[in-house]
Write a structure and sequence with these properties.
The structure holds 2 protein chains of 2 kinds.
Chain A lengths: L22 H8 L6 E5 L5 H10 L2 E6 L2 H9 L4 E3 L14 E7 L8 H11 E9 L4 H8 L24 H10 L3 E9 L2 E2 L4 H4 L2 E7 L7
Parallel strand pairs in A: 1-2, 1-4, 2-3, 4-5
Antiparallel strand pairs in A: 5-8, 6-7, 6-8
Chain B lengths: L4 E2 L21 E2 L2 E5 L3 E2 L5 E2 L2 E8 L9 E5 L11 E2 L2 E5 L6 E2 L4 E2 L4 E5 L14 E2 L4 E2 L9 H14 L5 E7 L1 H12 L4 E7 L7 H15 L9 H4 L4 H15 L2 H7 L22 H16 L2 H13 L10 H4 L6 E7 L7 H13 L4 E6 L13 H18 L22
Parallel strand pairs in B: 2-8, 7-12, 7-15, 10-11, 15-16, 16-17, 17-18
Antiparallel strand pairs in B: 1-9, 3-6, 4-5, 6-12, 8-9, 13-14
Helix pairs in contact in B: 1-2, 3-5, 3-8, 5-7
Classes of the chains: A alpha/beta, B alpha/beta.
Chain lengths: 217, 422
């Protein structure tokens, strides 16, 4: 937590979010209505929220735990609440947001079900992305007797933060159990979208779901 | 919480010309005393017929008067927020690490006002001032005050400077309560509300500590029911005990362990105890010294008044305990900061405010700094804390179209340090 590269980073941070969002973030952004209210869980340095604010007039709030990222988000003018996501979303009211985003964090959380139900509680729609454990080289690696180490999951088994890995089908089962109605899915391999045999060929899955609490539009 | 920080950088010097102004300091400062003759109606129902406020300002008010920042003080601080007192350059402002050219609150761009509150004892009208009705010190007759009363008095100060709306009102601890008070009482006059290490109300434990401190003062035979000025006495021992109790609540357990542990002050032969009630441990010596020093410059009636104002602060009292409702008229954007080891006003108290603001859809940024120094951390030099405040003020500057930051000074200019001892 005290890795403080350069907290002083001088001049007022650029207020223009970078033009090029990562493809998965760009897809997430495309699923968010202009002018809506968005909560970004694990918002990092606020890239997505700054983009949504500048391009889609979104009213955003972020949750982030890491000091350095919080500071960068503040410099971007992103409203961030510093908190450990494992503690839940008690600060947020029921259905306070239109969308809640959890980008590439689900697999590192202890309380997977809890965070998903909390997301469904605070927002009408949830958007979740996670590395696809069903990516075929993973299976190949296990056949060779090794835990998979790939681009989306570059860790060794003993130092990985990813404790709850799943495949697309696994996630869909959990979503059904929690009564989350999946409305969109996008799958990526690196920079490229994957449409054919996505369960095997994609490294990253992005789902959008509707909360069972959401009032019908 | 020590109002008179002695900086190692300001050399002792008899001639003010020889004073070295460190980078990032606003330099030599002189207070102004501003009189208000219109009576001030107070929350208690009493009226303060007239009053004077001691004020320091740093930086320059811009042409459209949009760059003003009000800094509110806590229990024992004053209008001397930053810089070096012109009549004693060793007397450094209590938030000098935060306010100055190139610092987090950058006086190259912001016009910063430090104000001593009414009821205090550093130059503004208080219990030791002369009551115009009697020609004698107010003493026990000085009216009780609340945070709201301070806000109303400060609002007249804003009028005096022709400031319609502050870019930000900012404070730590009790100062944070005043910032919150501004957002509630004068919502249209504040753009940003910056609340550090504060709370929406005191807990029973907080009030309990205050009450012990007050009893120490009131039961001192030299207190004379608050009219000790007439008797030519000062309830020094009561005030000093009050300060000792307060001081413990400003520090964390770990901090005290690290600073003092069980180190003996002057152990007997082979580390023997002295078996008596004199100073045995370092921590005792420290607390006694702090208490005695405090009792030489602070007014006992002020201590009573301010601790009571702390007790009374509870904006949600008017809304049946609903803090969100109490804050519903706030139009400011908020920054809250808390410190993990602050057990006086712990992070959970700040989170209550954050939760209420989120419920109201009020823009809020909240940083919880994992720092070891307890409540006092808000006065110290944690670089993450200063980076958050700096980043936030830079955004305010951008929002207001103020010029960009010219320099980085103070805590963030010395990167390698992660907090310094008091």
């Amino acid at each position: 937590m005290s890795h403080t590269p350069n907290l002083a980073a001088g001049s007022a941070a650029s207020h223009d979010a970078g033009l090029a969002l990562r493809p998965d973030l760009a897809r997430i952004a495309s699923w968010i209505d202009p002018g809506s209210r968005v909560l970004d869980l694990g918002c990092g340095d606020g890239t997505l929220l700054a983009y949504l604010r500048d391009r889609k007039s979104v009213e955003g709030a972020g949750v982030e735990f890491d000091d350095t990222r919080v500071i960068t988000a503040v410099r971007r003018g992103v409203r961030v609440v510093q908190q450990n996501l494992e503690e839940g979303l008690a600060l947020f009211d029921d259905q306070q947001f239109d969308s809640v985003v959890l980008s590439q964090t689900l697999q590192a959380m202890h309380h997977t079900e809890h965070i998903l139900t909390e997301m469904a509680r605070v927002a009408r729609c949830g958007i979740v992305s996670f590395p696809n454990f069903g990516y075929w080289p993973h299976g190949f690696s296990i056949l060779r007797g090794r835990m998979p180490v790939t681009g989306e999951m570059p860790y060794q088994w003993y130092n990985t933060p990813n404790i709850h890995l799943c495949t697309l089908k696994d996630f869909e089962d959990l979503a059904a159990k929690l009564k989350l109605r999946i409305t969109h899915l996008a799958t990526f391999n690196g920079e490229n979208e994957v449409k054919f045999l996505a369960g095997w060929r994609s490294t990253l899955a992005v789902y959008r779901f509707e909360s069972p609490m959401a009032a019908p539009k | 919480m020590v109002p008179l920080h002695i900086s190692s950088e300001s050399d002792a010097s008899t001639s003010p010309d020889a004073v070295v102004v460190p980078a990032g300091s606003v330099g030599l400062v002189t207070p102004q005393f501003i009189s208000f003759t219109e009576p001030l109606q107070l929350s208690s129902g009493q009226v303060l017929p007239s009053y004077e406020l001691a004020v320091e300002t740093y930086g320059t008010l811009n042409a459209d008067r949009s760059n003003a920042v009000l800094v509110c003080h806590a229990l024992n601080a004053s209008h001397h927020v930053a810089g070096m007192s012109a009549d004693n350059p060793k007397d450094i402002g209590w938030w000098d690490n935060m306010v100055g050219p190139g610092k987090a609150v950058d006086t190259d761009r912001f016009f910063v006002i430090g104000v001593n509150n009414i009821g205090s004892c550093f130059g503004s009208t208080g219990p030791a001032s002369i009551n115009p009705a009697t020609g004698k010190p107010w003493g026990a007759a000085f009216p009780m005050l609340t945070v709201k009363d301070w806000v109303l008095a400060q609002a007249r100060l804003a009028d005096h400077f022709g400031i319609e709306k502050f870019a930000a009102v900012m404070g730590g601890s009790l100062g944070g309560m005043q910032a919150l008070g501004w957002a509630i009482t004068c919502p249209e006059r504040i753009g940003h509300c910056i609340v550090i290490a504060s709370t929406p109300r005191l807990s029973a434990q907080n009030i309990g500590f205050n009450e012990v401190a007050r009893r120490a003062i009131i039961s001192d035979p030299d207190f004379h029911g608050g009219d000790y000025y007439d008797h030519g006495t000062v309830p020094r021992s009561g005030l000093s005990v009050a300060r000792m109790i307060g001081h413990i609540t400003y520090l964390s357990d770990d901090d005290m362990a690290a600073k003092f542990g069980r180190t003996q002050r002057s152990p007997g032969k082979n580390g023997e105890y002295h078996y008596g009630y004199g100073v045995e441990f370092e921590v005792e010596s420290y607390l006694r010294y702090q208490g005695e020093k405090f009792s030489t410059y602070f007014d006992a009636n002020t201590y009573l008044l301010i601790t009571r104002a702390l007790d009374y602060f509870d904006p949600s009292r008017a809304t049946g305990g609903d803090l969100a409702k109490a804050l519903s008229m706030a139009t400011a954007e908020f920054l809250l900061v808390s410190f993990s080891t602050d057990w006086r006003f712990p992070p959970s108290r700040s989170r209550e405010i954050v939760q209420a603001l989120l419920k109201n859809k009020t823009p809020v940024t909240y940083s919880e700094i994992d720092a070891p120094h307890g409540h006092d951390a808000f006065l110290l030099e944690d670089p993450r804390y200063h980076a958050v405040v700096q980043g936030y003020y830079d955004r305010i500057a951008l929002q207001l179209g103020l010029p960009g930051r010219q320099s980085v000074n103070g805590v963030l200019a010395k990167q390698s340090r992660t907090g310094v001892p008091t």
